[in-house]
Design brief:
The complex is a heterodimer. Chain A has 16 helices and 2 strands. Chain B has a single domain, classed as P-loop containing nucleotide triphosphate hydrolases (Rossmann fold, 3-Layer(aba) Sandwich), CATH 3.40.50. Chain B is about 40% helix and about 25% strand. Chain B has 9 helices and 10 strands. Chain B has a 6-stranded mixed β-sheet, with helices on both faces. The longest helix of chain B is centred in the C-terminal third of the chain and has 16 residues. Chain B is globular. Classes of the chains: A mainly alpha, B alpha/beta. Chains A and B meet through helix 8 and helix 9 of A and helix 2 and helix 3 of B.
Chain lengths: ~350, ~240
């Protein structure tokens, strides 16, 4: 399937799913579904750097928070403009619609990703992971001490009752936006996998010296990966203040984002775009169920247990298990993966 | 003599207090087959790494095809036509054998073409290169299914796939049987006849002697001999380095 075909098909599935969910007329479904969708984007974004390039990012929460806080900044701007600028200029400043906020959040987090990539170019393995962890701490400290976005007190973002244009319930609107973002993220991840870029990423994961010797510009590709990965995490975070209503640093930089962003692709399988999708749906749904039936604290326990289980029993995730049971009958039959190469 | 394809001038490299290369001078003419020998730890691989950009030399200059290489990264040198194979095979483990060959096609050969390869061209070229080293029957396998010998062939094939002007084969034959060594030497000579300049770093003397038009000897980070292979191996200094006094 070509990329645009994949995009259209998955978009159709997504919209059908949305209409189906609307038919059930259950707000909780949208509230819970939004979180799962958000984790699909986050896991897919993590996998671009972590799965394809082999660079483990422990700072996903920081990128997510960058997206969320860029939205907070934008919602604070009109009041700021009223106070400090003449009326004519202040009247021009409004809060942009969610899709624009998502793009802005993506740009901010993408730039942070580019910077992170640039500063940590020479770090590999554990050292890269520690550096990203440190980045999260540094950014959280900055946000805590930034009064404009509420500092450690947090910031309220009022969610409108209905969405513009569509006239639907705002939570349904957020769900729909996130659903489209999921489709975009999955399409991009899948396109990367099957492209020249995907081969470049795979060689970085396998052996950077040999990659360089084959002509792969490893530094540049790593920057592409950190930027793309960061941007999608930021995009996942941008609508979050509207969803949660009240954003504080400790929730935006929460441990659960960093852990889930790693655990979901690991559990699903890191070699393909399907892995993060499967992992996020599985883990995200389980966590939502646990939150409702037992307590929200249990949900992280579930992640931990599942992660331990998969690392020991199935290091290649659900996809690996699947291949083990169904795919290994004829080793000569087909290459490991033989995508149509598009050299662009 | 026309301008050399590769010119190594006064190249030096230290690792802490250890002087790995001490003012190496070396020239390789276009189309030449050069053998580079030396005892273990004499700096052969370090020299290869400095030439190919994996390491950066601290003193001196490397000039390739008239262009100074100082400061250029390994992939930029590969793009200019300087390919190398690694002493210990470093295949891309998560790709199949054919896909391993595809990487230099996508990232190096692609840059010299106006249009990208079509899928058929790509497959065809991969199989062509693999056929050269006799690996086409393993095209769809992951590298972990290869034997050590096949890994070395893959290593060489991947370097050849980049269509280099200069190929540096770093101990491509260690551990191979006599007939396989002969195959590889024949292969390298065939490549050379197509116009590719080749530097062979090797311990197996029969291979070096049958391959090289010229022989250079490194000992302790310094070049002690350079010239006609027959003369070089009779050089008393070379004998001393290899056999002791």
């Amino acid at each position: 399937m070509r990329t645009w075909q994949f995009f259209l098909v998955s978009l159709a599935i997504a919209i059908a799913g949305f209409l189906g969910a609307r038919y059930l007329q259950n707000d909780y479904l949208f509230f819970a579904g939004y979180v799962v969708l958000q984790f699909i984007v986050l896991a897919t974004a993590w996998n671009i750097l972590g799965g394809y390039c082999g660079y483990v990012n422990f700072g996903s929460a920081a990128f997510f928070a960058m997206g969320a806080y860029s939205t907070v900044v934008m919602t604070k701007l009109p009041a700021f403009a009223n106070r400090h600028f003449p009326e004519e200029i202040a009247a021009l400043v409004g809060v942009p619609p969610i899709p624009v906020l998502i793009v802005l959040g993506g740009i901010v987090a993408g730039l942070v990703g580019l910077g992170t990539g640039y500063l940590t170019l020479r770090l590999r393995g554990v050292f890269f992971a520690i550096a990203t962890l440190a980045l999260a701490v540094v950014l959280q400290t900055l946000v805590v001490n930034w009064d404009f976005v509420g500092g450690s007190r947090g910031a309220y973002v009022i969610r409108p009752a209905t969405a513009p244009l569509l006239g639907i319930n705002y939570i349904e609107y957020l769900f729909l936006v996130m659903l489209i973002l999921v489709v975009v993220a999955l399409t991009v991840a899948r396109a990367i996998e099957r492209s020249r870029l995907g081969y470049g990423f795979a060689t970085i994961r396998d052996d950077e010296l040999a990659a360089e010797a084959s002509g792969v510009p490893t530094l540049r590709l790593k920057l592409v990966a950190t930027t793309l990965s960061g941007a999608f995490m930021g995009m996942a975070g941008a609508p979050f203040p509207y969803y949660i209503g009240f954003l504080e640093p400790s929730s935006a930089f929460g441990l659960s984002y960093a852990v889930n962003a790693i655990a979901m692709p690991m559990i699903g399988g890191t070699t393909s775009w399907v892995g993060p999708l499967l992992g996020a749906v599985l883990l995200g749904t389980l966590q939502q169920l646990a939150t409702v039936t037992i307590s929200s604290a249990v949900s992280l326990l579930i992640v931990g247990l599942l992660l331990v289980f998969f690392v020991i029993i199935a290091p290649n995730g659900v996809i690996g298990l699947w291949q083990q049971f169904f795919g290994r009958k004829a080793p000569d039959a087909k290459p490991a993966h033989d995508p149509a190469v598009k050299t662009s | 003599m026309s301008t050399p394809l590769l010119k190594v001038e006064n190249v030096g490299k230290r690792f802490g207090g250890f002087v790995a290369l001490d003012g190496i001078n070396l020239e390789i003419a276009k189309g030449e087959r050069l053998g580079l020998i030396g005892p273990n730890g004499s700096g052969k691989s370090t020299l290869v790494n400095c030439m190919s950009g994996t390491l950066h030399n601290e003193t001196g200059t490397v000039t390739f095809d008239g262009k100074p290489m100082n400061g250029l990264l390994a992939h930029q040198r590969t793009h200019l036509g300087l390919a190398r194979s690694f002493q210990l095979p470093r295949p891309f483990h998560s790709l199949t054998v054919a896909e391993n060959i595809r990487v230099p096609l996508l990232y190096t050969v692609r840059l010299r073409r106006d249009v990208p390869h079509t899928r058929q061209e790509m497959d065809h070229r991969c199989h062509e290169v693999l056929a050269l080293v006799g690996l086409e029957h393993k095209a769809g396998r992951p590298p972990r299914d290869l034997t050590q010998v096949e890994m070395r062939k893959l290593e060489l094939a991947r370097a050849m796939a980049a269509e280099p002007k200069l190929l540096i084969a770093d101990e491509a034959m260690a551990g191979l049987s006599e007939s396989e060594v002969k195959d590889i030497v024949a292969l390298l000579i065939a490549l050379n006849e197509r116009g590719i300049t080749i530097i062979l770093i090797e311990h197996i003397m029969t291979a070096v002697m049958s391959f090289s038009q010229r022989l250079a000897v490194l000992v302790g980070g310094r070049k002690i001999a350079d010239g006609d292979p027959q003369d070089v191996i009779r050089d008393p200094e070379v004998e001393r380095a290899y056999l002791g006094q």
